[in-house]
Amino acid sequence: MRALVTGGTGFVGNHLVGELRRKGWEVVCIARRPLKSVDPGIVCLTGDLLQPDLLKYDKSEVGKIDAVFHLAAMLPNQLPDAKLGLYLTANAVATNRLLEITADWDIGSFVYISSLTIVGKPEYLPITEHHPVRPSHPYLIGKLCGELACEMNRRNNYRNIFSLRVTSPYGPGMPSETVLNRFVHRSLHSEDLICFGTGQRSQNFVHVDDVVLACLLAAKSNRPGVYNIGGCSSINMKSLAELIVRLTPGSRSQVFMGTAPDPQDDYRWEVDLTAAKSEIRYTPTVSLEQGISRYIKFIQSDSPHHQWWQTQ
Questions:
Q1: Whole-model pTM above 0.90?
Q2: Which of 32, 195, 200, 225 sits most deeply, having the most CB atoms within 10 A of its CB?
Q3: Which CATH code for domain 2-174+206-231+270-285?
């Protein structure tokens, strides 16, 4: 089996490439900068999805591809002041361009990574795939338009295209600014954990291993469509902080409520995984307690997170 992966140097993409290789897949990665891998099973191509017209790969350059995993995206923290047009180019136009390029490659599956947060403020719980979508940021508008491009290609060309609406992924290599990562590091240093607002905003955290699992299950499925991908359960911020302190050996941290408001204090991210469970056989395997414990041990080990493109 051979996979084409965009965003392979990102948090989830790095884990996905590693798991594909462990399962014996050959991998072709598209990255903005020239990369080299000591693994002969990984081929690196250079291309910038911000300039999708420059993506002119043909089948002879990449060989037979069995599945495309499209994870590349411009994130809000990369260009905080970026306008809608740039997000549309990077996250929607580029997605459609990739769909066009691969249309005649006889590819088994095309897996697009989207975000559950395109729904905006949840209107009902649990959140299903039919929940109204009201994206609250240009980044999310770009992700939604990428989904629409996938839907158009799926319906018009009868292609095996999947859009996975992922909740809040975490694990080794996760972005440092995420709340779970900040809480873990403060707890390891016995510093107090501060929650904003009432601390009742809830999130659904999904371990990166389960996101990778969902990608592989979709690639093997013949039930294309849009699917929610989340963890075992949701948790509010106060309970998350208390759980992390409890799971951190020797931590003397305490959890306090800060004076700053939480603009999403009344948001409740409870996700319905019924469709993913029944159609692509996805069930999360890592509980939040297990995932946090594993992440704490990873941070304590002070070992570098493996990156497939690093020379050894």
A1: yes
A2: 195
A3: 3.40.50.720
